[in-house]
Amino acid sequence: MFHWFKKKEEPTWMPAFTTDVHSHLLPGIDDGVKSLEEAEQVIVKLQSLGFSRLITSPHVHELYRNSTETILQKLTLLKDYLKEKKIEVTLSSVAEYSLDEWLMQQVEAKTPLLTFSQNHLLFETNFFSEPLILNDFIFKITTLGYKPVMAHPERYMYLLNNKSRIEDLAARGVLMQLNTMSLAGLYGPEVEKLARFLIDQKFVNMLGSDCHNLQHAEVLKRAQKTKHYSKALALPLLNYSL
Q1: pTM attached to this predicted model
Q2: Among residues 12, 58, 130, 237, which is most buried (max CB within 10 A)?
Q3: If we measure between CA atoms, which residue out of 170, 195, 163 comes closest to residue 180?
Q4: Rg from Cα positions in the chain
Q5: What are the strands of the beta sheet with 90-93, ordered from one edge?
Q6: E-assigned strands of the chain?
Q7: Contact in structure between 197 and 230 (CB atoms under 8 Å)
């Protein structure tokens, strides 16, 4: 009979930033969402997790040779759709470039690339072996004024037992974007362990969801409740200022 005095249950966590820097939300352009309707569902879920600004990052590699034009066309299409659905979210797009000979050719030709503000260039590498051109790539794009951002370094097998190489990459000016879902064990215990190490040693410069679908969004929710997620939020993450 005294139910109106019952204390309202408080949320168990609260996101400390509202900008996500890595996702695959442009429909039909890579291995992310396949339709505008699916993009809507994932975006609404991300909003429920506290995100109001999404910088999506479609793949650019041999399987998905997206151009700046095709990416921006899809971005406009999705923005128009969300506006029609009255979904208010700040949406922009960069690209997640795969480090290969094609990308090196674009760099050497000084082809404009899709970047974060202040020329932050998001790139990924082979998951198993370090590219022989990695150091050369870092040097060339840095010389051109780009700031290299390595996507999900915790997932690269060649870094799992090579902490000195991580230190070397950081010394060369490589910024590191951790996948938040790694903290929930999505990619396995070894990846989770390295993710925690990168946070503990303060190598992490950005957090990104790398969200491809609704299932990923649910994993992200679990990751946000982990101890190391809270620890990462205390770092001077670029998410706060981008």
Answers
A1: 0.92
A2: 58
A3: 195
A4: 19
A5: 19-20, 53-56, 90-93
A6: 19-20, 53-56, 59-60, 90-93, 96-98, 120-124, 147-151, 175-179, 206-208
A7: no
- 200 CB-near residues (< 8 Å, 6+ apart): 228, 231
- Can you give the pLDDT of all 242 residues of the chain as single tens digits? 444 443 433 344 444 679 999 999 999 999 999 999 999 999 999 999 999 999 999 999 999 999 999 999 999 999 999 999 999 999 999 999 999 999 999 999 999 999 998 899 999 999 999 999 999 999 999 999 999 999 999 999 999 999 999 999 999 999 999 999 999 999 999 999 999 999 999 999 999 999 999 999 999 999 999 999 999 999 999 999 98
Inter-residue contact 187 to 151 (CB < 8 Å): no
- The residue type of 78 is L
